[in-house]
UniProtKB/TrEMBL annotation:
It holds the Pfam family Lipase_GDSL_2. Keywords: Signal. Residues 338-519 form the SGNH hydrolase-type esterase domain. Gene3D superfamilies: SGNH hydrolase. Residues 1-27 form the signal peptide. This is Predicted lipase. It comes from the Bacteria. It comes from Malacoplasma penetrans (strain HF-2) (Mycoplasma penetrans).
């Protein structure tokens, strides 16, 4: 929503250790014995330069099918937002990186609005989390076509899971893993008319020496399989390796990157993401605009508490709730899209913590038991991204995903930036909302829209004219929901008003410092409200290990030590 200066410090890259990038230049289809021995000696530790170039070229193009699909088991799927203090998951952080920090910043001006050259936003280049509970490489390859169907996956990313590593002791497991990895590579590279790309991310090292020995074993199998494709220059150039095990076998990572259960902490997640990004774009330096600097973040990464106070939830229209519950029960797999501006995207002002999309996705998979549903964040962090502009492009973006349910939360930028607030009338909003519904139905005639009202910001910049415009917009939004049987109202404006009416002091737990955007704690309430609107109750989130005072103190001490080291204080 608002313009800002770039961060002075790059927190994301500051925490990463250097990656040894070994360029692999393919000049012929046949490898000499000397060349092959070099590949074996270096272990193919990094993505080769050809793959990085191909991916960057794909991201620049106007194609629809430049999507990333991440595959993995419980290590990826069971990312417990409360155990990790609501910090964003690995896949969500990578999605944010590609949108705002990648080489082309496809959701940043002027690229987002450069319609003359037909440059498209990442809104139509999705990052899909295709992981699921207990997913192994065997289940991935058996279900691969179903997982990628209609999603136009161009780059398939396999995050090697501990389940496959622990299974190596089983008779015949190494041969089975080798066979399945070959199938995964062939499946991935055959996508998009044999132009697909595959990235294999090896597992990180832990404090368990026996497990680490198995990591080394599975790494040797991975290297062997990848090397078996070396004689096919084109296919080999579309395979990449990211060896996080090499860069995590150190005391710093093992002390703060993983917890006592050898699962990733928020810092460990960032460390792995840094290695992945550095492998993909070894010459690129990003600025982490969506998070705070090291000075600001300090121990708050671990110590932040997600508020679990009573939420004041609206009562949804009973008829639509019943219809939608039937819709859910009759569909084994649904596609969800969260469409909006920076309020929906939420990445910058939550400082890398979870927002509405992440919380909803977590509850959907864990409490609604819908692990196969796909949820995509199409929120654009830009003060130029208005309902007026976005409604002109939905036809394109929806075509690339064809969602079953769209959560639409837009309009504040129209009021603040697109024109004088007096222009925002009921008719203005009604026209663009109806066009959005028409565009959605053109790609999925059975789709639903959940439309949210606009809470009035508490900033001093909110004039009476702006308040009037917000009121007009909310009237139009409510009428839009009433007049369309496939539209559900999510009255967030009333939720915020109710919370602050009961406890005015709670404002500091809702708004960020600008009193326009929201904190992660507010999105917990918003996600619960959305679930209630759709007609479901769910339990309170489980108590986190890190909420124990002694554990938190120890973690804080560790974080302070490493941050002091990063900042050169030691």
């Amino acid at each position: 929503m608002i313009k800002r200066n770039k961060m002075k410090k790059n927190w994301l890259l500051a925490l990463s250790s250097p990656l040894l990038v070994v360029p692999i230049v393919l000049t012929s289809c046949t490898k000499t014995e000397e060349e092959t021995s070099v590949y074996k000696k270096d272990g193919l530790y990094s993505l080769n330069n050809n793959l990085g170039t191909k991916i960057q070229s794909a991201m620049q193009s106007g194609e629809m099918n430049n999507n990333f699909g991440f595959f993995g088991g419980n290590d990826l799927f069971n990312y417990d937002i409360y155990q990790n203090n609501a910090y964003r998951s690995y896949v969500d952080l990578f999605s944010d990186y590609m949108r705002y920090n990648g080489p082309y910043k496809l959701d940043s001006s002027p690229y987002q609005f450069d319609t003359a050259s037909k440059r498209r936003t990442i809104g139509s280049r999705f990052v899909f989390d295709l992981s699921s509970k207990d997913q192994t490489l065997a289940t991935i390859v058996n279900d691969y076509n179903g997982l990628v169907k209609d999603n136009n996956i161009k780059t398939s990313v396999l995050v090697v899971d501990s389940a496959d590593i622990n299974n190596l002791s089983t008779e015949g497991a190494t041969t089975e893993f080798e066979t399945n990895l070959k199938r995964f590579i062939l499946n991935g590279t055959s996508q998009n008319k044999n132009k697909g790309m595959v990235i294999i991310q090896k597992h990180y090292k832990t404090n368990d020496s026996s497990f680490n020995n198995s990591v080394d074993l599975i790494n040797s199998i991975i290297d062997k399989v990848v090397l078996s494709f070396a004689d096919d220059a084109d296919l080999f150039s579309r395979i990449g390796l990211v060896d996080v095990s090499k860069n995590t076998d150190n005391a710093n990572f093992k002390s703060i990157g993983i917890n006592s259960s050898n699962l990733l902490t928020p810092y460990g997640t960032l460390e792995l993401l840094n290695i992945f990004v550095d492998s993909l774009y070894p010459k690129h330096t990003s600025i982490a605009e969506w998070t705070s600097s090291v000075d600001d973040i300090k121990a708050d990464v671990i110590n932040q508490t997600i508020t679990k106070e009573t939420s004041y939830l609206q009562t949804a229209d009973s008829t639509k709730v019943i219809n939608f519950k039937n819709y859910l029960s009759n569909n084994s797999k649904l596609k969800w899209a969260f469409v909006g501006d920076s309020l929906t995207n939420g990445s910058y002002f939550t400082r890398g913590y979870s927002g509405l999309y992440e919380y909803f996705k977590w509850y959907l998979k864990h409490d609604w038991n819908r692990p196969d549903d796909l949820v995509v964040n199409m929120g654009i962090h830009s003060n130029q991204y208005s309902l007026e502009y976005s409604s002109q492009n939905y036809g394109y973006n929806f075509l690339g995903y064809a969602p079953d349910v769209v959560h639409l939360w837009m309009g504040i930028n129209d009021i603040y930036y697109e024109s004088t607030a007096s222009k925002i009338t009921n008719t203005y909003f009604s026209n663009y909302l109806n066009k959005t519904l028409t565009d959605l139905e053109s790609v999925n005639k059975n789709a639903w829209i959940v439309v949210s009202t606009i809470p009035t910001p508490k900033s001093d910049t909110v004039t009476n004219e702006i308040k009037t415009a917000i009121g007009n917009a909310n009237v139009a939004i409510k009428n839009f929901a009433k007049s369309n049987s496939k539209v559900i109202l999510n009255d967030l404006a009333s939720v915020v008003d109710k919370v602050l009416e009961i406890d005015p002091n709670y404002q500091s737990n809702i708004y960020a410092s600008d009193l326009l955007h929201y904190q992660s704690t507010a999105y917990v309430t918003f996600a619960k409200n959305l679930l209630t609107v759709l007609g479901e109750n769910f339990p309170d989130p489980p108590k986190s290990e890190t909420e124990d005072e002694s554990t938190t103190t120890t973690l804080n001490s560790r974080i302070e030590t490493i941050l002091d080291s990063v900042q050169g204080k030691n």
